[in-house]
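Both lines are quoted verbatim for reference:

——
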Amino acid sequence: MPRPELSIVIPAFNEAENVPLLAEELRKELAGARLDDYEVVFVDDGSTDETAACARREAQRDARFRLLRLAQNSGESAATEAGLRHARGDILVVMDADLQNPPADVPRLVAAVRSGDTD
């Protein structure tokens, strides 16, 4: 798989309900902005619910989605770091799995980075 322009890293702990919602919102917003060259890296931070299974289903449905599993709960910072280490994109975006960060913001962030307007 070629290196994508954009990697979205999503640390997740017990977010089974939100994973499919977030995945669908990301697909919708990125398609609407004509951003197709991306990957989404869900990092399951040792969840005790079905977070990993939900993220795996998204990866099976769409090759741009990947799952990285941590053996035990290590905290958001460690999960984020692991995701960033596995991300392959030139532009990196980190967002929460609980939909606290609106997926609609991603195209604006990408546009700002592309234009060099990162202030």
User: Anything to note?
Assistant: The chain has one domain: 6-115. The beta strands are 6-12, 38-45, 65-70, 91-94.
